[in-house]
């Protein structure tokens, strides 16, 4: 399995799901989950591979949230005087800001101010602090 780490990272970078990666490796997804627990380098390869893909998606989502302009180019072929003549047409298209994309970004990047359930965030923080305190006191 360790000899396939480069492929695992590449497949993750290409946007394949872990289920698809497991299929490419010829194993079941549950086996891949076990391997991730047994071999940290597999988990790391998956994580490392996903980073550029996730960043690319975040950038596209941010672009969509803010709105953007795009130049669209079309090529037309007309026959004039028995000859093919190519014409290129450029059109500037404007894509307005997308409210759904804004919502997704704000809820994930600024949870404290944009959560659907701010009390849940406070409870999660308290729970994490409680668990840390219990671990320090070795109660669990």
What does this structure look like?
The protein is α+β, with helices and mostly antiparallel strands and 140 residues long. Helices cover 64% and strands 19% of the residues. The protein has a two-stranded antiparallel sheet with strand order 1-2. A hairpin with a 2-residue loop joins strand 1 (68-80) and strand 2. Helix 3 (29-38) packs across helix 4 (40-66) and helix 4 (40-66) crosses helix 5 (99-109). The protein is flat and about 90 Å long.
Keywords, separated by commas or semicolons:
single chain, two-stranded antiparallel sheet, 2 strands, 140 residues, alpha+beta
Summarize the structure.
By secondary structure, this protein is of the alpha+beta class.
Layout: helices, strands, pairs:
Elements: H1 5-13, H2 18-25, H3 29-38, H4 40-66, E1 68-80, E2 83-95, H5 99-109, H6 111-114, H7 118-137
Antiparallel strand pairs: 1-2
Helix pairs in contact: 1-4, 3-4, 4-5
């Amino acid at each position: 399995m360790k000899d396939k780490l480069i492929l695992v990272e590449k497949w993750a970078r290409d946007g394949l799901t872990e289920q698809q990666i497991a299929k490419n490796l010829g194993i079941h997804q549950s086996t891949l989950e076990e391997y991730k627990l047994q071999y940290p380098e597999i988990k790391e390869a998956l994580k490392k591979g996903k980073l550029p893909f996730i960043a690319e998606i975040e950038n596209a989502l941010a672009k969509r949230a803010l709105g953007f302009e795009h130049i669209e180019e079309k090529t037309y072929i007309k026959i004039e005087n028995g000859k093919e003549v190519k014409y290129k047409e450029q059109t500037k298209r404007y894509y307005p800001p997308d409210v759904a994309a804004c919502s997704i970004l704000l809820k994930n990047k600024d949870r404290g101010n944009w959560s659907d359930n701010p009390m849940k965030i406070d409870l999660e923080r308290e729970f994490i602090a409680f668990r840390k305190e219990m671990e320090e006191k070795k109660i669990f």
